[in-house]
Write a structure and sequence with these properties.
Length: 804
């Protein structure tokens, strides 16, 4: 007993001696990444009542302090030799690679904590890990661990509108219009980029139609420049000359570089902002003056911004006057030639070129870009527009087969599912990221097309409104970044973060409630599958308009996840066939289980004075009520489909009862949203007003009571699913559609290219008027047809053809 007491007293003496003196942080003060990591370590130490001295690394050998923290590179042989001299393990340090780090703890003579990086980024991440360890454990831990990135590039897709006249692909939402002023605020970018680094993101991609008019000055085209800043509502919010704008973005990019974050710019084509109609410039693909202007713009853009690391392009969505092959030549003649022009003046400059697989084909792309000498990669919408669907994605399989040996792809991980509510399921994020084909993955870019993740404008609470979205959704952003770096990260790390943010709450209970509620949107989306952002917004049960019970009756489920849709389920029930798939009722039961479990767990968390905790609990409650709503809606749609096929009124009565329950749950959901959110117009799906949508939810009940049969049958003519056609084919596609109700619109979308809408037959797309169907090149082509009736019911049919 006396020995244990003596050991305890010794430990307390050593601990108290550390706490009684200053702690020294030693690093190279000329490296901004080290300065940032040291700042976070200092904050963590101060939080525990410890005083801190920031010292140059050259003073380390002379330190008389009882505790030292060291941030250094593996190439600093003096530091590594000193670590070895006092007993630290150094055998693996020489092998540390890109972004990798080693943490060591030594106790000879004094207590030293070491963060050694394979490169500057690795040392940054090691220092940030040290700061996290100290936050959780003060100076009571012993750390001897090595870590390296699972995915080397972990990034953000940031759709950015620079001005009312220089927007992103769709900047018509209130969030997008309001954030124009914020993207010209340096304080926003500093805090945002700091958080990206903390969460281990190292790529920030800006997506905009045409950045040049707001970001460069061309002497030959003085009248295209946009001076000052006008928000999306037409308000002049800032006076700025083009010179001041250039200086601003140079500062932003330098700051990103100081956080080891690469900058990419992605564009859609051919969009020209205020250059349209000036100097003979138009969006026509055959206009040589436009090509000359774009080429000069790209060159000047790169020369102006030395920290731009990559350019990404889209062969659309305003190039319909060109065939796929002509589009690729246009992109080479403008973007690539502009890059090559810049490299003539900056010979050592390397520009990564990323070509989106969208409105084009691999064969056409490689026919022109195989000669590109710097890194060349693809980009693909990995889970269509719905990352919150399933971790088991197969949409990219055809692309992986077509990509030339040695090329890699950036996965565009689109969140057009969840904008308001705080999401947090580490298991889902981990499984999703592990689903990438690692050997063919260049990296991932997470973000939205229908929402600007800048500052918050939809929240009522003053502690949140106007703050950064990444601060409100810190848990979400942390999960996707940290697990991209290390998917083996223990759930204890996330629980410790919850404990830091919400000390009043039982951590395990909150963790489980949040994780369970966060399964509701993915489960619903797997069932009510609609691929693109304008077709499905699950927080509001909306496309452009409310998706009613008939839409659920005729809807498709996500491919490859084993769920049978309602129509096929009813056929099997009526024909008394065996059902091996997950049924609609199984999905409904699962949603109800997630919802009720979440609500039960929340009863174990007391209301507190922590506003952030209360808002998070309210979001979890909202998820749960939404889950119960979809559960009852799916049941109601299933019973209504059975009634349509059997005329058994019992099914109709059951449908009505389920939809009445759905209404009750929607009202509870609306009450949660009303408590902390303001209705806003969203870019892709219009106004999201949960109270106004109550009338639509009530309309489902009336639709069931006064049911009118809905059936839309789409057949392709002139082209056959699974068929193989020769290279050079000129395709003609005709749709034959039978519908019980009048149709309002019909559309065709080949390889993601929107070919416009037709209101009346014939529903025909011929090669003579559709350049993308002319002289088709090698590849696999997905052709989607869709039709919508007067009740708003939309049906889709997809076929695939091969050209070879």
């Amino acid at each position: 007993m006396s020995i244990k007491v003596n050991v305890l007293l010794l430990f307390l003496f050593l601990a108290n001696s550390i706490f009684a003196q200053d702690v020294g942080i030693f690093y190279n003060h000329k490296i901004p990444q080290f300065d940032f990591a040291a700042s976070d370590i200092k904050k963590a130490l101060n939080k525990h009542g410890l005083a801190v001295l920031l010292k140059p690394i050259t003073d380390l050998s002379e330190s008389k302090l009882s505790c030292n923290i060291i941030i250094a590179l593996k190439s600093n042989t003096e530091v590594v030799e000193l670590l070895a001299e006092i007993g630290g393990r150094t055998s693996n340090i020489i092998n540390l690679g890109e972004q990798a780090y080693a943490l060591r703890t030594t106790t000879k003579d004094c207590t030293n904590y070491w963060a050694i990086g394979g490169d500057v980024s690795g040392a940054l991440y090691g220092g940030l890990q040290m700061a996290e360890n100290i936050t959780f454990n003060a100076l009571n831990g012993v750390y001897n661990q090595d870590d390296k990135p699972y995915l080397k590039k972990r990034g953000i897709k940031f759709n950015i509108a620079l001005d009312q006249k220089s927007d992103s692909f769709d900047s018509d939402g209130d969030q997008d219009k309001s954030n124009i002023k914020d993207v010209w605020d340096m304080s926003f970018w500093k805090s945002y980029l700091d958080d990206l680094a903390r969460y281990r993101y190292n790529t920030l991609s800006f997506w905009t139609k045409h950045p040049f008019t707001c970001m460069i000055k061309l002497e030959e085209y003085p009248d295209v420049v946009i001076n000052d800043v006008t928000d999306g509502y037409g308000n002049l919010v800032m006076k700025m000359t083009i010179e001041e704008k250039i200086a601003f973005w140079q500062e932003v990019m330098t700051y990103a570089n100081d956080r080891s974050i690469d900058i990419f710019y992605f564009t859609w084509n051919i969009f020209l902002s205020t250059a349209e109609g000036k100097y003979g410039i138009t969006h026509k693909g055959t206009n040589e003056k436009t090509k000359e202007y774009l080429r000069k713009s790209v060159k000047e853009f790169l020369l102006t911004y030395p920290h731009v690391d990559g350019i990404g392009v889209t062969a659309g969505e305003r190039m319909r006057d060109l065939s796929f092959g002509e589009r690729e030549k246009w992109l080479w003649d403008t973007y690539v030639m502009g890059i090559l022009d810049a490299k003539k003046e900056q010979g050592n400059r390397e520009i990564r070129f990323i070509h989106r697989h969208w409105n084009t084909a691999v064969s056409d792309i490689m026919g022109h870009f195989e000669a590109y000498e710097d890194p060349f990669e693809f980009s693909f919408k990995y889970a269509r527009a719905h990352m919150y669907s399933s971790p088991k994605i197969t949409f990219e399989d055809f692309l992986l087969e077509e990509m030339p040996e040695g090329t890699k792809c950036w996965w565009n991980v689109r969140n057009d599912d969840i904008f308001q509510l705080r999401w947090g399921d580490p298991e889902f994020a981990r499984d999703f990221l592990l689903g990438f084909d690692k050997q063919k993955t260049a990296g991932y870019l997470m973000g939205s097309d229908g929402y600007t993740w800048g500052r918050v404008y939809s929240d009522k609470d003053p502690s949140i409104r106007g703050k950064n979205e990444i601060s409100k959704h810190w848990y979400n952003f942390m999960l996707w970044g940290r697990l991209g770096y290390n998917p083996d990260l223990s759930e204890d790390v996330f629980k410790n973060h919850l404990k830091q943010h919400f000390p009043e709450a039982p951590t395990d209970t909150l963790y489980l409630a949040w994780k369970t509620a966060s399964k509701i949107i993915p489960q619903t989306t797997r069932f009510a599958w609609k691929d693109w952002d304008g077709n499905w917004y699950p927080e509001g049960c909306k496309s452009g308009s409310f998706i009613n019970v008939k839409g659920f009756m005729v809807g498709q489920t996500m491919d490859g996840i084993g769920i049978i849709n309602i129509a096929d389920y009813c056929d099997k029930i009526i024909n008394k066939e065996d059902i091996s798939e997950i049924t609609p009722l199984d999905v409904a039961n699962k949603l109800e289980s997630y919802a009720n479990q979440s609500l039960f767990l929340l009863t174990c968390i007391k209301h507190s004075d922590n506003t952030a905790l209360n808002l998070t609990i309210n979001d979890i409650s909202a998820f749960a009520h939404l889950g119960n709503y979809y559960s009852e809606k799916i049941r109601g749609a299933t019973e209504l489909a059975l009634f349509m096929n059997t005329s058994n009124i019992t099914h109709q009565n059951k449908a009505v009862k389920h939809l009445e329950k759905a209404l009750s749950h929607w009202k509870k959901y609306a009450k949660c949203l009303d408590a902390q959110y303001i209705p806003k117009v969203l870019a892709r799906t219009g106004l999201f007003d949960w109270n106004k949508l109550i009338k639509d939810v009530e309309g489902d009940i009336e639709m069931a009571k006064n049911f009118v049969k809905t059936e839309i049958d789409i057949k392709f003519e002139g082209v056959t699913d699974g068929a193989v056609y020769p290279v050079g084919t000129n395709l003609s596609v005709k749709l034959s559609i039978k519908s019980t109700l009048p149709l309002t619109i019909v559309g065709l979308v080949p390889n993601g290219e929107f070919l416009g809408l037709k209101k009346n037959p014939p529903y025909l797309w011929e090669s003579e008027t559709t350049p993308s169907f002319q002289n088709m090149n090698t590849g696999i082509y997905e052709i989607k047809a869709h039709a919508t009736d007067i009740h708003g019911v939309r049906v889709e049919k997809i076929i695939t053809i091969t050209i070879k």
